[in-house]
């Protein structure tokens, strides 16, 4: 693989993932300003422990003499073939894993975890079904629990849920239709149910 192709490969890998997190990062800053606890060292590691029986193949994608991509495979029982179970990527070439992809028994992507602040812990998790992204979770305060969850149907954004006060319960809902917010629900008393609905008067889809 030429140097140019290596850069194109990593650019393709990172563009959609990091762009998809940009809006959520802004939301996370707003949550922190409202009194969220400071980051902790808890949470899932972006680089899992290597399991027994896993084989690893390292690749130097950017040509600097150091591995950037690690692909993990396992033996398929009763066969001479290998099945890919996980792939780890160092996106900023600092020698540490920033993105890990998990694959199911058919080889399809089922989950991605990302370390966006380079502390070794998972900040964002994407879930997939049949190749389509169905859910995205963001952990803004580093406690290992999602503070924001975004849902997709057939690749289209349909709902966002947030825990805005850090108590572990969803208290803010956004419902989307045709690419824009249709209505917003807010839990004002912390009982887990919507107390206030706000509709988007400019959403033609609700007419």
TrEMBL record:
InterPro entries: Integrin_alpha_N. Residues 26-64, 187-207 are annotated as: Disordered. Keywords: Signal. Residues 1-19 form the signal peptide. The keyword Cell membrane does not apply. It comes from the Bacteria. Residues 28-44 have a biased composition (Polar residues). Residues 46-64 have a biased composition (Basic and acidic residues). This is Lipoprotein. It comes from Myxococcus fulvus.
